Amino acid sequence: RCLSDWSSDVCSSDLGLAAFLRQRGLEVTMLDNSVEHGGVNDDLANDTVYSNLLARCRAGEFLAILAAPPCSTFSVSRFFTAEDSKDGGPPPVRERDQISGVDQLPAQHQRELDRANLLVRRTTALITAAFDAGSQYIIENPADRGDREQEHIFLTQRHGPLWLMPEIIALAEHTHGKHHTFAQCQFGAAYQKYTTVLA
User: Fold this and answer.
1) Alpha helix (H) ranges present in the chain?
2) pTM
């Protein structure tokens, strides 16, 4: 059995990840936290959904977990003006030196930040429980574009990626996880989109 918390366009289509895994005889449990596709039964912010999954992870039910926490609050694009947007696009809600969130956000962005932080905490708790029970995992999110030592992908020193979240750092240390970064166009995607996986 495989637990996947990836966006529906990756997993739900006939050519997506879930179909690929099912063709190989695996049973797949899908979750989609997006407002557009997921419902209350897919929402890790729902205490019942989270508690049930945590019990299953602790029981060692999953061979592997593939997770992609919502990336909008971690996107480097928030540090640049969107020219085709009337308001310039959403503001940064976290920065490198304030990775859990910047101060004095408008209410709508504070709710967005709080939800994203909750989902990161719950995702890492699920993966930790599953790992301790013998499961494997992969977490996917945009690459760190604020590390000057990575000159080929550096964009702004203010960027605060998922990979600097204390929960993610603790998970990597606990599981001896390794980061791997690549451009999606290397695998046939239409866009460069530098991406990192932790496994």
Assistant:
1) 8-11, 17-23, 47-58, 107-132, 166-175
2) 0.89
